[in-house]
C-alpha cells in the first residue's frame, strides 16, 4: 500500500522539479500588457515550488525513501509538458498554468487518498495543505482571465 504512495510522491516531486524550470520559462518569455503582473506572479509560484520540492523530498527521506534528486531521472519520470524557449502570450500563459494546476490538484488528491489508506496522516496533512493552496490558485487564475 505505501509503495504506491511513495512512487506517486516521487512522481509528484519529479513533476514539481520540472515545473520549477517551466515557471521560470514563463516568467522570462511571457509577453503582453499583463507582463508585470504575470512576471511577478510566476516568480512567487516558482519560489513556492522550490519550498514544496524541498518539503516533499524531506518527507520522503523521513519515511526512509529516496527522493528523485537529479534532472535526468526527474525528466524520465515527469509527465508534465515542458515549453519551448520562445515568447508566449499572457492568455496562453494563464491557460497553461490552469491546466498544470488542475493536474497538480488531481495528483495531490490522489496522494492524500493513498496516504490516508496507508495510515500516513502526516503525509496526508502535508498534501492536503498543497491541495487547498492549488484550489485557491486555480480560482484566482480563472478569475484573472474571466
Ligand atoms: Fe526574475
Search tags:
two-stranded parallel sheet; single chain; 79% helix; Ferritin; 5 helices; binds fe (ii) ion; mainly alpha; 2 strands; 146 residues; 3% strand
Describe this structure in words.
- The chain has 146 residues and is mostly helical.
- It has a single domain, classed as Ferritin, core subunit, four-helix bundle (Ferritin, Up-down Bundle), CATH 1.20.1260.10.
- Helices cover 79% and strands 3% of the residues.
- Strands 1-2 form a two-stranded parallel ribbon.
- Helix 4 runs antiparallel to helix 5.
- The longest helix has 28 residues, at 2-29.
- The radius of gyration is 16 Å and the shape is globular.
- The termini are far apart.
- Bound molecules: fe (ii) ion.
- The site of fe (ii) ion has 2 residues, from loops.
- This is DNA starvation/stationary phase protection protein.
Amino acid at each position: 500500500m505505501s509503495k504506491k504512495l511513495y512512487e506517486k510522491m516521487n512522481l509528484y516531486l519529479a513533476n514539481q522539479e520540472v515545473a520549477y524550470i517551466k515557471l521560470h520559462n514563463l516568467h522570462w518569455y511571457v509577453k503582453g500588457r499583463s507582463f508585470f503582473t504575470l512576471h511577478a506572479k510566476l516568480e512567487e509560484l516558482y519560489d513556492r515550488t522550490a519550498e514544496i520540492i524541498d518539503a516533499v523530498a524531506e518527507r520522503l527521506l523521513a519515511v526512509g525513501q529516496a527522493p528523485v534528486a537529479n534532472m535526468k531521472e526527474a525528466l524520465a519520470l515527469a509527465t508534465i509538458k515542458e515549453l519551448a524557449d520562445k515568447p508566449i502570450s499572457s492568455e496562453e500563459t494563464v491557460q497553461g498554468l490552469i491546466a498544470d494546476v488542475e493536474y497538480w490538484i488531481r495528483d495531490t488528491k490522489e496522494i492524500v487518498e493513498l496516504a490516508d489508506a496507508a495510515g500516513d496522516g502526516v503525509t496526508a496533512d502535508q498534501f492536503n495543505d498543497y491541495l487547498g493552496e492549488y484550489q485557491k490558485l486555480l480560482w484566482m487564475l480563472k478569475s484573472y482571465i474571466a
